[in-house]
Amino acid sequence: MRLLALAAGTLVAAALAWHAAPSFAAEPARRVPPPRFDVMTPPTAKYETAVFAGGCFWGVQGIFQRVKGVNNAVSGYAGGEAKTARYDQVGSGRTGHAETVRINYDPQQVSYGKLLQIFFSVAHDPTELNRQGPDTGPQYRSTVFAENIEQARVARDYIAQLNQAKVFGKPLATTIEMSKPFYAAEAYHQDFLTRNPRYGYVVIYDMPKLENLKKLFPESYRATPALVNPAKGG
Q: 42, 127, 164, 222: which is deepest, by most CB within 10 A?
């Protein structure tokens, strides 16, 4: 996923990170088993946060915006310093940042474990090391940015569970990073999938993820996304 120029918030020119033939297809999807353990939340809690990195944030954001119980999903950067949390710098792969999505959700409607299950099932391919589809580099790594020790414990056990069951046929490349600050991405990245459903990259790599969410998790899918900027939704 590469942007070359922007004017007044509108994409003027773009190029995709294509590799030589054969071309890359959308990541495969499968409904993996739910985690054995989940984060415990008080019965009165109405607000929790999960932070995931799984390749280009357009698709990851678009997936979680369609999950019931998610109040907000913001594209951004995590893993590096505030001064380098800019798209033109993160793309170098040398900032420590990953393209990331911060998810605010109602734990009475959807659990942290359920979000992890969706993350590993349809949001990306967790076996890919520092890449997703045509995008390569550590900024596209698979990472759970745990907000606290309990989230880290649940995520770590879930990765071990999936590896032990050999669900993917090879080990997961997903890492866990603790308490890294999140920085929201530029406005033109927010709600990108919804606002640009016919954009080439989105058509090839991201729309299939939405279809997989709807097919594999019908109980969690909602037709109306929770947009960052509802007034600008497509």
A: 127
Give tens-digit pLDDT for 115-147. 999 999 999 999 999 999 999 999 999 999 999
Distances (CA, A) of 184 to 22, 104, 188: 34, 13, 11
For 3-16+25-220, CATH number?
3.30.1060.10
Identify the active-site residue in 56, 67, 73, 226.
56
- Residues 129, 173 contacting (CB under 8 angstroms): yes
Residue 184 backbone dihedrals phi, psi, to 5 degrees: -60, 140
Q: Are strands 10-14 and 70-78 parallel, antiparallel or unpaired?
A: unpaired
The domains of the chain are located at: 3-16+25-220
Put simply, whether the predicted model's pTM sits higher than 0.85 gets the answer yes
| Helix/strand/coil for 82 | helix
Active site residue 131: no
Q: Which residues pair with 13 in a beta bridge?
A: 5
